[in-house]
Model the fold of this input.
Amino acid sequence: MKPALLVLAAGMGSRYGGLKQIDGLGPNGETIMDYSIFDAIGAGFGKVVFVIRKDFEQEFREKILSKYEGHIDVEVVFQSINSLPEGFRCPDERTKPWGPAHAVIMADKAIDVPFAVINSDDFYGRNSFEVIGKELMQPAKRPGDYCMVGFRVGNTMTENGGVNRGVCQVQNGCLTSVVECKGIAYNEQHDIVYKDAEGVSHSLDANVPVSMNMWGFTPDYFELATREFTKFLSEKIDKPNSEQVIPDVADTLIKSGEATIKVLDTDSRWFGVTYAEDRPGVVEKFAELHRKGVYPDKLFK
Done:
């Protein structure tokens, strides 16, 4: 059974300053998503589901989906701030999406096989798709048997500002906790540092594993995630900037004993366009990958 790939493409791109999901960064105008889909096909994935906002559906279909015809099955689902469980109503002043954990739930009716979750604006590298694809194709995956690709934090940094990462604790190859840390950045000494919620500064070794939102789940995850999102709304629906991230859900399920999350190692080096200043460097990196033959002249012919 081929796994599915769930691509989270509904983000607002506020720090970048535009719809980076459809920004052409490759030599022939390829988007970061194009490289992810190309690598996923090579790794044995059989379907791609995109979570997008309804307001850019037409442009997304014309610029993105059309090129995948004949290569892999695709489906689109929509994330809206008004798509809430029964009994909840979005506050009138709310404009911010509810976060990545909510975006995953939107694909409940579109996926019935083991699936990987990725961000649309992150380049993960071929090896990461190979390792998670192989894991998801293992027979007899039990409910709650999940996985994630653990990137080394030093391979996920940008020189242009802070980044948010799920910092992982791992024991016997499995995740024991994951904490979303915001504003991870280089200091003047080029050490990797961040501040916690109390404003206390911490340093991170470059090899510490972090989540880049590359998760592997079985379909039972949707029910558990919906339950956790309902709890989240009960506590934070009136906070206009609140959002639920996947590491929060994963950490809860690990601690409750409902999930075991295997951490898959990769030496892939992440890059992406968190900030507009990242764009020139990403364009050059893709050009170099094509020059080296890692990718063909045209990904989808």
